[in-house]
Amino acid sequence: MSTKPYYAGQDVDAPCGRCGGETRHQILTVTNGTPEQLICGNCRSVHKFRAPKPPPLARTPRAAAAPRPSGPRPGSLPAQFQTALAQEQGGALARPYRVTEHWAEGAWMDHPAFGLGRVQRRAGKKVDVLFSAGLKTLVSA
Ligand SMILES: [Zn+2]
Hints:
Elements: E1 11-16, E2 21-31, E3 34-40, E4 46-48, H1 78-88, E5 95-96, E6 108-111, E7 115-123, E8 126-131, E9 134-139
Parallel strand pairs: 5-6
Antiparallel strand pairs: 1-2, 2-3, 3-4, 6-7, 7-8, 8-9
Bound molecules: zinc ion.
């Protein structure tokens, strides 16, 4: 945006409502570098300064809201379980849960109480498994 230094007494071309077009005006008052009052050199009427033309790039489209991060998180919602289930079709890969089995991260299990679940995190002999009912911690071999 070009900022011309305006000054009182300067001649500018500006639209005049009374004359119905652009006419030569003289700036009467300037505030913070912006003309406030003009006097029309044609009809001698005094009116407020209006910017001749709005800058062409005044309107920039709003940036679309950033999508929420969708990484797997411990304690995540059942909805996320449903998404993972749909994406990976884990039901076909699920093994029945047994304490004696080793459960790696990402493995699908079929739990007698909780149903289908996916191992989110493994810590020692325990695994956090996401079921449709929520996150459960189970024992793993
Ligand atoms: Zn005028």
